[in-house]
Specification:
heterodimer; A: about 120 residues; alpha/beta; Transcription Regulator spoIIAA; about 50% helix; globular; B: about 140 residues; alpha+beta; Heat Shock Protein 90; 5 strands; binds adenosine-5'-triphosphate; binds magnesium ion
């Protein structure tokens, strides 16, 4: 099973998904992220899905799970870079990402996290 | 509707890495008949849901992918078959949000919306076969 790497840049954990996700990889990523947020005290998590060709119910649920998890550690999760075809498909599938924050691209995602952090200080 | 473009390809569904393989094969077929990117994405997403159901609830099975034609247009047909427990209440299973487990209950109902043709054939104690078709255009 492949594992998705997690990078840390200035208090933000960056996850860029570049592989075709199998369910075990999704579950491992959730666990790895929980551990890394708790270890690093990161204030934000960015999940870049610009390389992801499909989001099904299992992968969609991962975003919601990671968002809830990160909130327990006082961190915010932003999902960035969703492809238009994926967005259209998600809506028709009937999957709502709940209160998962999304942004157009990485730059905007980081901006959201930065603003939130300044707002809190 | 007849099969076109050669023999159907079959893939076993025995582990979650097979679900990924099914997605990739369906993508190849969708590109072969030149489905639009959105329709490719819809079909592959539906296939992912159905292959996972075959694995999780059917205890594994097989996927069969082929190109079909109705004379004027081409499409991709994907069949998901298992010899598992079957589905006792089809109406319930096809309802949005109903899951016998901890799922979101969107797999069947959602994939039905994502394709042009959807057929669910199931018998308790015998197994389940789901057939979907996505046409070009
Ligand atoms: N191949 C199958 N064999 C037996 N039962 C099945 C099969 N496929 C689906 N089911 C039943 O139908 C229910 C609904 O399936 P559906 O895919 O819509 O939702 P789910 O798998 O429970 O959740 P989700 O797909 O949203 O994660 C399942 O909970 C299961 O009880
Ligand atoms: Mg399902």
């Amino acid at each position: 099973m492949e594992r998705v790497p997690i990078l840390e840049i200035g208090g933000v954990l960056l996850v860029s998904i570049q592989i075709d996700l199998q369910d075990q990889t999704v579950l491992a990523l959730q666990e790895d992220l929980a551990q890394r947020i708790s270890d690093t005290g990161a204030h934000g998590v960015v999940i870049d899905i610009s390389g992801v060709e499909i989001v099904d119910s299992f992968i969609g649920r991962m975003f919601a799970t990671i968002a809830s998890l990160s909130r327990l550690f006082d961190a915010t999760t932003v999902v960035v870079g969703m492809r238009p075809a994926v967005a259209i498909t998600l809506v028709e599938l009937g999957l709502t990402l709940g209160d998962v924050r999304t942004a157009l691209n990485l730059e905007r995602g980081l901006k959201i996290l930065g603003e939130q952090r300044r707002g809190r200080r | 509707m007849t099969a076109a473009g050669g023999e159907p390809e079959e893939l076993p569904i025995a582990g979650d890495d097979d679900v990924v393989r099914v997605r990739q094969l369906v993508r190849t077929y969708a590109q072969r008949v030149k489905l639009s990117l959105v329709n490719q994405t819809k079909l592959v997403t539906a296939a992912s849901e159905l292959a996972r159901n075959t694995l999780v609830y059917g205890g594994g099975g097989v996927a069969r992918i082929e190109v079909v034609t109705d004379g004027v247009r081409q499409g991709v047909r994907a069949v998901f078959h298992d010899d598992g427990p079957g589905i006792p209440d089809v109406t319930l299973a096809l309802a949005d949000g109903w899951s016998s487990g901890s799922g979101l209950g969107l797999g069947l109902s959602g994939s039905r919306r994502l394709v042009d043709e959807f057929d669910l054939d199931t018998e308790v104690g015998r197994g389940t076969t789901v057939t979907v078709v996505k046409w070009r255009g």
